[in-house]
């Protein structure tokens, strides 16, 4: 990613500590578990982001100076110090929102500056529905396609493997689709493309998302990721 301006995404944060302390980070500097830093797969090195724990409202600003996380369904890997401030040391992971900040915004934000988002456990959901339940919830995204038939085929294959509840979410996005494919839909505006995202959920926990990720991989689906909506 050449330009991080305007980046904002929700997902799962993890942290790394003593095992990597002192090792060389991707930026060339030594990793310091007590510094406010983080690893991200695509953001420029260095860049600054605000990370907000959506379950308790705590927020920190960290400098991205490393690459990772190396688990597909993790969004950002925090230093020990950053994870401690966000309150995710004990659990190992946290549901967060990550957004870039400008040069003048790199001071620590006030805690709980925004209301926290409750992560709603999986409830009774219509397993045959293609529309996700309302609310801020966790899902496992197992694929994104520009053609309905491809999405439907994956959904049917995973349903047979008992990965449920699974649904297809239809969304209009910018013309260049997330998976690099050309738009095929004629009902979308010229500057937009219709994307069909295949998702499992809602999920009761990150651990369940990890379990389903492994199960999906056993059935030939790589690159599944936990998303928050």
Q: Could you walk me through the main structural features you see in this protein, from its secondary elements to its overall organization?
A:
It is a single chain. The chain is of the alpha+beta class. The protein has 2 domains: 8-105, RlpA-like domain (Barwin-like endoglucanases); 138-228, 2-Layer Sandwich (Alpha-Beta Plaits). Helices cover 14% and strands 31% of the residues. The chain has helices at residues 80-86, 148-160, 206-218, and strands spanning 8-16, 37-39, 47-53, 59-66, 76-79, 93-100, 138-145, 166-174, 192-203, 225-228. The protein has a 6-stranded mixed β-barrel. β3 and β4 (59-66) form a beta hairpin. 34% of the residues are buried.
Helical proportion? 10-25%
Structural class: alpha+beta
Count of distinct strands: 10
* Assembly annotation: single chain
State the end-to-end distance: 23 Å
Helix run count: 3
Gross morphology is globular
Give the number of domains: 2
Mean model confidence by pLDDT: 83
Rg (C-alpha, Å): 18 Å
Beta fraction: 25-35%
CATH class of the largest domain: Mainly Beta
**CATH level-3 fold name of the largest domain:** Barwin-like endoglucanases
Unreliable stretches, pLDDT < 50, 5 or more residues? 110-120, 122-135, 177-186
Biggest sheet architecture: 6 strands, mixed, barrel
**Secondary-structure element series:** EEEEEHEEHEEHE
> Do you know the CATH architecture of the largest domain?
Beta Barrel
In what order do the strands lie side by side in the largest sheet?
A: 1-5-2-4-3-6
Q: CATH superfamily of the largest domain, called what?
A: RlpA-like domain
